[in-house]
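Recap from last week: sequence in, structure out.
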Amino acid sequence: MGKIVDVLKTGKIMVSDGAWGTYLYQKGMKAGECPDVWSVDRFDDVVDIAKSYADAGADMVESDSFGANYYKLIHFGLQDRAAEINEAAARASRKGAGDKYVIASIGPTGKMLVTEEVTEEELYESFKVQAIALEKGGADAVCIETMSDADEACCAIKAAKENTKLEIITTFSFEKTIQGSYRTMMGLSPEDAVKASLEAGSDIVGTNCGNGFERMIEIVSCMKSAYPDALILVHANAGLPQNVDGKDIFPETPEMMADRVDAMIEAGANIIGGCCGTTPAHIAAIKKVVDAHNKKVA
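Predicted structure tokens:
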């Protein structure tokens, strides 16, 4: 396979996968259990998740490694198995993805540089272990996602760039402010997030989680307006969560999300996928619209 970036530069819109966490719960994961170690202990179940998204039409699938960094794994006493867990996660997605791309997930550590809980060197080392193991397991790219702090994201980008040949995708999560603008938990704007990511060496930038398609269209528009040449990935939730009988329910159906795909492309998205609440059915619906778009502009 060629590089994802090269495919995007032809003008083709690509489709990514959907939620992983909810899928793991459906397969029996218990609250408080480490999701990432499923790639070792329940390998075939993780393969099945990746395969489900590939079969639904995703051009790329993530991996069960979002929290597989030293600082998250320490809560489960698994910190010394980080390399093993990440390699297994990439291998599971590689097996399930078939001839599709694997964009292996790297999430935040939960540690704050600003409060000096951790140093940049320590973050770099943690991300380095992940990136090397993910490449060894067969990943094509890393998806550094759900970031809120530019410095942490840049540590992850640097670790992947200096220690692997993987393509690098970096996405941030934003909330809408009272004033109507978007900011990460650390106060970063979409424009500043893109600037920091590109300067650090990310190949693809974007946004994930926290918002449904409607708000994601606005965020992508901000990014594209500021950086017209940037390649942008969006992983949107199936709407904003609603609490029903004590459970968070994501209300947007596959058809509702599909109805906004053209607007998302117009806003500037190059890769479209899902986050919380999305399923293979959502990805299949998105794929149908994307295929029609690609055929029309070919």
